[in-house]
Amino acid sequence: MVTALIFAGGTGQRMNSRAKPKQFLEMHGKPIIIYTLEHFEAHEEVDNIVIVCLKEWISELRRLLKRYAITKVTMIVPGGDTGHMSIYNGLEAMKVSAKEDDIVLIHDGVRPLITAELISSNIEAVKQYGNAITVESARESVVQSVDGKTIDAVPHRDEMYTAKAPQSFRYGRILELYERSYADGKAFIDSAHLCGSYGEPMHMVQSTKNNMKITTPADFYIYRALYEALENQQIFGL
Predict the structure, then answer these.
(1) 81 CB-near residues (< 8 Å, 6+ apart)
(2) pTM value?
């Protein structure tokens, strides 16, 4: 069984959108969360989808799922106060049906420019290595600073990568790590950070192009431009 765990519990404070959370903002009349879900809905290897959503927006999400014929969603779970807790809530809720060896792809609801190829690469890597962290090569030099004032190290750029999504795992193992972090009272930025903190070996999968997360107003406009460019390629063969 392959499950896509989509977390869409953010309030979008950096987006400066008071009316709607960022995942419900529309582009060409369709919410961002639907663009994201459609990739997993269409993928033949994905069996079902679990969504972690802001509690007060669950009814609206159900309406959208029906409107856009998203049929693979088997569960909608209320989100937590942080992204970490939202993922934890989703994994805990999956206990009712998921098995330890099942594959779970953890993905941002506001990362809609993924591809079927990337989903397939994640699934295959989990089958071979036990997990898959989608990454992108660093485009600029990365510096390390402990105090935020002075630079302590400048790692070689060709050894640096940015963690993206999906981040994919065997269900039993990632659940175990999230439950361990909950017991320890720790929260992490993403699943890769969680695994790194507990010494879990990780396998990299190279991201496809433009796999961006929509967080700020500028991200939204970049996404719109990229989407329209991709659309033009299909229509006009550009």
Answers:
(1) none
(2) 0.91
